[in-house]
Every structure is written in structure tokens, then in C-alpha cells.
Amino acid sequence: MAGDARLFVLATLDRLGEAHGHEVTREAAVDRTDTWAHVSQGALYSALRRCDADGLVAAVRTEQVGAFPARTVYALTAAGRTALAEARTAAWARTGLPPDPFDLALSVSDGGDPVVLRAGIEARLAAYTRALAGLSGEFAQLQHRLEPTARAVFEHVMLRHETEIAWHRALLERVDGFATLRPATTDEV
């Protein structure tokens, strides 16, 4: 989401003071932002350009190190600080989970082959289990260097994975019952 990328850009410049686009994307890579937010590293450059066009950030200088291309260094403006506070408040007020396409596929699977459905559920369970193992390993290595808020986000993402794993395991226990077609409904006008 464009608003999430903008929030990340503004917050990063607020935290770092000044930065060029590559530094902002590096912060996103270090924070693993793409695993817990709708922020891809590619969207950050365009968000930074939009923030500049909107007067939320301002170019303070251009740097060139060695043979690397020249980079524009930006800082937050007063309008950017206001926009950051508003974006944070709006993000804190937003609740809900994004729709999962799996739920749609499951909801239209009554009467389907339980073997096929079981395979799909097992594949997702394995993917969530691998992802959680990776996150847990990363967390174990990084937790002593993480800021308290970053640690809390890591824990939240791991808990969401644990919940998905538990739900998929419970779903596997019920999959044979999904082979029954739901009764057709007749709507009389």
C-alpha cells in the first residue's frame, strides 16, 4: 500500500535525520519490512519521490562516493513531521486482517476431493512451518540487537504464523467432512 510505504519513508527519515533512497531501502531490508507490512523495497523510491513532490521531505545535498551514482540526501520537513504523526495515528486506528485467497478456495470446496484439499492444506501448513522456523531463527540471532518495538513486531509476526499453523492442523482433522456437498438452496421470488 502506498500509504504504508510513505509512513515508512517518513518514519525512517525522522529516525535517521537525513538519508538517501538507498539508505531508506536498506533500513527496510534490515527490518524485514516486507514480511510484516505492505512495504516493498521497490515502492520506497516512488514513495520518497512523492514525499518530495508533496513537500514532506526536502533535498539537503547530493553525495557521490567513488564510482557510485550521485545520491540525493533528504530530510523531513515540518509538513513531513505533521504527515508522519497523522499517518501513525491512522495506522494505529486501522484494524483487521487482509483477506486470504485460501479462504475463498476453501469456501467453494464442498463436495470436492478431500485428497486434493488435504494436499493443499498440508502444503500451506508446511510453508507456514518453514516460515516460522526461519523467523524464529532470525529472531534468536537478532533479538539482542533489536529495539523494543522491533522485537514486539517480530513477536507479533511469529504469533500470527503460530495461529495459522494451529488452524491448518485443526482443518486437516476435519477435511474428510468437506467431501459432502452442501444442500442446494432454492430461492422463491
Topology readout:
Blueprint: H1 2-16, E1 18-20, H2 21-31, H3 41-53, E2 57-63, E3 71-76, H4 78-93, H5 101-107, H6 114-142, H7 148-174
Antiparallel strand pairs: 1-3, 2-3
Brief synopsis:
By secondary structure, the chain is mainly α. The protein is built from 7 helices and 3 strands.
Pick out its properties.
189 residues, mainly alpha, Arc Repressor Mutant, subunit A, 2 domains, 7 helices, 62% helix, 8% strand
What would your notes on this structure say?
- With 189 residues, this protein is mainly alpha-helical.
- The chain has two domains: 92 residues, Arc Repressor Mutant, subunit A, CATH 1.10.10.10; 79 residues.
- Helices cover 62% and strands 8% of the residues.
- The chain contains seven helices and three strands, in the order H-E-H-H-E-E-H-H-H-H.
- Strands 1-3-2 form a three-stranded antiparallel β-sheet.
- A hairpin with a 7-residue loop joins strand 2 and strand 3.
- The protein is elongated and about 65 Å long.
- The two termini are 43 Å apart.
Helix content: 55-70%
In sequence order, what are the helices and strands, one letter per element? HEHHEEHHHH
Relative strand content: 5-15%
Largest sheet: 3 strands, antiparallel
